Amino acid sequence: MTRLLIIQPDPSDPLGPLGDWLTDAGAELDVRLQPDGGLPTDVDGYQGVVCLGGDMGAQDDAKHPWLADVRRLLAKAAAKNLPTLGICLGAQLLTLATGGRVEEGSDGPEVGPHLVAKKDAAWTDPLFADLPLMQDVLQFHTDAITRLPPGAELLASAPRYANQAYRLGRCVYGVQFHIETTPAVVESWAAECPEVAEFARPGSLEHDALVTVHADIEETWRPFAQRFVRLAAGELAPAVDRQRTLPLA
What we know:
Keywords: Glutamine amidotransferase, Transferase. The protein has 249 residues and is of the alpha/beta class.
């Protein structure tokens, strides 16, 4: 059994259908809702780590001091080249833990169903290569990844915020968007944060629109989740180290 540590920073963003996709692929999930669920001191005994989203900022340690523990654990996972996936806040925490930068988005919140586009490096990546050129995702964030961690490769981008998905090393991933939501979860976020939801395109947060986009998200991202489990299980080879070459004279 491939054992995955699932870090859930906020009750409002549960594992949702992503949990089903992971378990259907053969993973055993150890879900830790923060802060009461605690965190292991190390990632020994796990074959992979997933960190979900949340309402707080990735640097909001004054209100949520346990965020520092999450960042430390993500840094350990990255240092050990353990297959890791950070989603939205999880990607921002991973970014900070590995030397990148997260700031309030200069172009305002990014909200609702959107498309992101594969970058060149994605075509040879074990998780992203088989994704379509344009991928349906769900956005709901006010902060943005403004600088990738040193050595990271950009895998997906979008017009408003460029750093939508990246890989660090051979198997550590961050995605700024959501793939784990349901229409009900997004509707609850919109109800709780109307000042953020108003940045969505008109009609894009209506129930029928959310049902449609979530069906498209499942079609694209369920196989991605299955590949992540295979990567964690050692059945899928991680990315090849980026070749560093000197310029020709």
